[in-house]
Automatic annotation (TrEMBL):
It comes from Nannospalax galili (Northern Israeli blind subterranean mole rat). The keyword Calcium does not apply. This is Dehydrogenase/reductase SDR family member 13. Belongs to the short-chain dehydrogenases/reductases (SDR) family. It comes from the Eukaryota. The keyword NAD applies. Putative oxidoreductase. SUPFAM superfamilies: NAD(P)-binding Rossmann-fold domains. GO terms for cellular component: extracellular region. InterPro entries: NAD(P)-bd_dom_sf (IPR036291), SDR_fam (IPR002347).
């Protein structure tokens, strides 16, 4: 009996530890009205994106749900209008797997929406499912599509500055290794998919870094955000049916709810005072240092050039576009330099002896500002 009680106590203690360190997310704590502001959230019909869009709508923003399925997108817009009491939540079609769809979305958006204050690249896939493409579908949806969309929407972001771009990445970026000779090779089998997912999330971190450099001084800042381990359809939707009843309850117990996962993207989109940290990676509403591969500035610039080519935006050095060759977008490109800017990436930070910026002081100041005065419901 005593052994049983001890075992139960240990199990409970272990769960409490897991819960407070992994499952429970710190609230973003950002307050303030977003009335008069416009936000785009990609992949907002489910999971983290839907909860992110809900919080933006609750704060009064006009929120555009950029989703690939009209049916799921319209249904989510309806839910979010009901739940937030904000009628300014609309659906617009965007399939990030298709460069033509990204361009069509941008044309429709720029033609109908006068503002863009917050762009959240949330949509993502972890597997190709049954699709067999001649290109790397994970890189296309998770990085190249968002890269192109950012370029096309930049005129609005710049004219509404201060404005923000948030790229929802993942801690999986730590396992990423970009092979520039094979960036766009098709992905076959689950092992390659896991690798391609990590690579695409590393691309997210490098993209935010390079974008921050390219946009320095423009008033547009950008951040990579890790939502934490979240109980969503991202991986579960690819499980065989017979495994779901076993794994879903476990996922519910040990993974964060999507609302918890939305906190760090929201923090990056809304928190005042983090502008000097533009280009950085955030997790649990804190800036975090990343491994060397994710702060490799020459690699970030090389990825930028390769991505331009893969997105049909102009000559790059590494890969050929495999689909939908597009004319050069001189308007978007003219606003971003292709040469390396000389200024340091993060201004106002001293460097620690190891050569890394000493973020501790600035982070402390921001944490004081971020003290939650309002808990998310
Ligand atoms: N869940 C986690 O533990 C975790 C951890 C780290 C990072 N993340 C990141 O968080 C983000 C959101 O994931 P989630 O967990 O909320 O997963 P999710 O529930 O599966 O949501 C993914 C969203 O992306 C959309 N999407 C997929 N392919 C698309 C395409 N081609 N064009 C436009 N939209 C597309 C999906 O739309 P459909 O419903 O039409 O498929 C869905 O709305 C992803 O970027 C993911 O990498 C998640």
């Amino acid at each position: 009996m005593e052994a049983l009680l001890l075992g139960a106590g240990l199990l409970l203690g272990a769960y409490v530890l897991v819960y407070y360190n992994l499952v429970k997310a710190p609230p973003c704590g950002c307050i303030g009205s977003l009335r008069g502001r416009t936000a785009v959230v990609t992949g907002a019909n489910s999971g983290i994106g839907k909860m992110t869009a809900l919080e933006l709508a609750r704060r009064g923003a006009r929120v555009v749900l950029a989703c690939r399925s009209r049916e799921r997108g319209e249904a989510a817009a309806f839910d979010l209008r009901q739940e937030s009491g904000n009628n300014e939540v609309i659906f617009m079609a965007l399939d990030l797997a298709s460069l033509a769809s990204v361009r069509a979305f941008a044309t429709a958006f720029l033609g109908s929406e006068p503002r863009l204050d917050i762009l959240i690249h949330n949509a993502g896939i972890s597997s190709c499912g049954r699709r067999k493409e001649t290109f790397n579908l994970l890189l296309r949806v998770n990085h190249i599509g968002p890269f192109l969309l950012t370029h096309l929407l930049l005129p609005h972001l710049k004219s509404c500055a201060p404005s923000r771009v948030v790229v929802v990445s993942s801690a999986a970026h730590q396992r990423g290794r970009l092979d520039f000779t094979r960036l766009n090779r098709p992905v076959v089998g689950w092992r390659q998919e896991l690798r391609a997912y990590a690579d695409s999330k590393l691309a997210n971190v490098l993209f935010a870094r390079e974008l921050a450099t390219q946009l320095e001084g423009s008033g547009v800042t950008c951040y990579a955000a890790h939502p934490g381990p979240v109980n969503s359809e991202l991986f579960l939707r690819h499980l065989p049916g017979w495994l779901r009843p076993m794994l879903c309850p476990l996922a519910w117990l040990v993974l964060r709810a999507p609302q918890g996962g939305a906190q760090t993207p929201l923090y990056c989109a809304l928190q005042e005072g983090i502008e000097p940290l533009s280009g950085r990676y955030f997790a649990n509403c804190h800036v975090e240092e990343v491994p060397p591969a994710a702060r490799d500035d020459p690699a970030a610039h090389r990825l930028w050039e390769a991505s331009k080519k893969l997105a049909g935006l102009g000559p790059g050095k590494d890969e050929d576009p495999d689909e939908e060759p597009q004319p050069e977008d001189s308007g978007a490109l003219s606003s971003l330099s292709t040469s390396r800017p000389k200024k340091p990436r993060v201004s106002g930070l001293s460097h620690a002896p190891g050569g890394l910026p000493d973020l501790s002081k600035l982070t402390q100041q921001i944490q004081v500002k971020a003290e939650p005065t309002h808990q998310l419901s």
